[in-house]
Amino acid sequence: MGIISRGFQGRRRDAGDRLPPGQYLVDDFPVLSAGPTPRVPLDRWEFAVDTEAGQTHRWSWAEFLALPQETPTVDIHCVTKWTKLDTTWQGVSLDVLLEDVETAADYALIYSYGGYTTNLPLEDLLDGQAWIAHRFDGEELEPRHGGPARLIVPHLYFWKSAKWVRGIRLLNEDYPGFWETAGYNNYGDPWREQRYEGD
What we know:
The protein is built from 4 helices and 11 strands; from the N terminus they run αβββαββαββββββα. The chain is mostly beta strands and 199 residues long. It has a single domain (43-186), classed as Sulfite Oxidase, Chain A, domain 2 (Alpha-Beta Complex), CATH 3.90.420.10. The strands form 2 sheets. Strands 1, 4, 5, 8, 9 and 10 form a 6-stranded mixed beta sheet that branches.
């Protein structure tokens, strides 16, 4: 029979266990964008899911806010090598948004106000892995960080978490987005350092 000291709780997870290879920790929230920041009036904002069969599901801002909300706390990892731990968001899970959507698609192309796109396997948006977030750290999401709403997919590099999100197009075949056509990795797993094509 083994002896365990009172209060023993096993090995503690420290920041090193949560830091993907090649990343460094930041306390601030760096702002990186490929173009100007879109300003989207909330009375004109909408989010859409377009299926491969041509059906569209739409939500206005008020309808979106009325959906069940979650408050995930996640680590985020930028391809430029910074990592921010324990970021807290509020938003709607993609599981909720896709619940009544009939699809046989395997891929998703996320599109944003301002023209930005990024692609993901549909399975990476399901099972509690992704949200459309409209609040960060208890405050409304600032436009420079993707407000009024952005995608959050924390298990992939942060360019996959599209800012100013407008909709998702469900596809039978993969279709690369903005950074993917410019030489970034098609998937973007920070734990495998999939920064660029060929990584």
